[in-house]
Design goal:
By secondary structure, this protein is mostly helical. The protein is 64% helix and 0% strand. It contains 13 helices and no strands.
Length: 309
């Protein structure tokens, strides 16, 4: 059920909701009002009892239904839910607390999931989703925190999200590789077999494809906004942390993460457009370029990002 589901607690549960608010004990600087916290509780209940609530209106809930909801509310991690509520709303004090308390845990989990090489980007990219990458039709961010319902510890939920994002990325990259049939035979057309990922080292056109990709990527990086390019340079060329970049650019750490993620997506999209429509590469050739990029590619990213306006 979506986070903005229409559900309101009946008046008979007012005391229970008030008890949840008191137990959450959200610090005043998080600015979690009772009304805002109640909406988080209502989203959680709507998600847990979606089938029952879809079949009846609030006024028709039975005593058994109300008892089940009350029992459910008593099982929630209320403090964690209040933190997620505040972070979703973009409260700076809550974000500072979240970063201080959960960043070490996120990096440890990312290293366990993706290994040392991919841990930093996996963990940092999650900040962008948590803060909210996109604006909704109603003018507010769509934060991943809206999908935390308090049923588990926040740290446990974050580790599960990291693992899922890692699996999603693995599946995405696997989809870009040539497919084999059940007998292990390549099912690409015969003319494209030579371009398959299994024959990368044998492809005589490898250098040409990498040169095309390098030209496209260099052009795209040169065309992005100077501040976005600077942010990429700080992160990838200078290996600065999100916090350090934020101090240099006078941006919140979550804002740095969100803008980095948006720039990465835009760069990839623009590179693919150039390869398809300017260089006239087929889908198989485009996949091959991207496969080469994941291998040994002497692309000087520092030089490409060196223009620091």
């Amino acid at each position: 059920m979506p986070p903005d589901v229409c559900f309101r607690f009946p008046s008979s549960l007012a005391d229970v909701v008030a008890q949840c608010w008191n137990k959450a004990a959200a610090p005043a600087e998080w600015n979690v009002t009772p009304g805002r916290f109640q909406r988080s509780l209502e989203r959680s209940v709507a998600h847990r009892f979606s089938a029952r609530l879809a079949a009846t209106d609030t006024a028709s809930l039975t005593a058994s239904d109300l008892g089940a909801i009350e029992s459910y509310l008593g099982s929630l991690r209320l403090r964690d839910l209040s933190l997620a509520c505040a972070c979703s709303a973009g409260e700076a004090a809550a974000w500072d607390y979240f970063v201080a308390e959960y960043r070490p845990e996120l990096y440890r989990a990312a290293r366990a999931i993706a290994g040392e090489a991919g841990a930093r980007e996996l963990a940092d990219s999650l900040y962008a989703e948590l803060f909210g990458l996109h604006e909704s039709e109603k003018g507010r961010r769509n934060s991943l925190f809206d999908y935390f319902h308090g049923r588990s510890k926040l740290g446990t939920w974050l580790r599960a999200i990291l693992a899922q994002r890692h699996v999603d990325e693995f599946r995405r990259t696997r989809r870009e590789e040539p497919l084999d049939d059940a007998r292990g035979e390549n099912v690409l057309p015969a003319a494209e077999v030579a371009l398959s990922a299994n024959n990368l080292s044998l492809d005589p056109e490898r250098d040409r494809y990498l040169a095309i990709l390098q030209a496209a990527l260099t052009a795209v990086l040169g065309a992005i906004a100077p501040r976005d390019r600077l942010r990429l340079a700080y992160y990838y060329a200078d290996d600065l942390t999100l916090a350090a970049i934020g101090r240099l650019l006078d941006e919140h750490e979550a804002t740095v993460s969100r803008k980095l993620e948006r720039t990465r997506r835009d760069v990839r999209h623009q590179v693919e457009l150039r390869l398809r429509y300017e260089k006239k590469l087929s889908e198989a050739q485009l996949r091959l370029c991207l496969e080469y990029a994941r291998g040994e590619w002497p692309f000087d990213l520092t030089a490409a990002l060196s223009a620091r306006d």
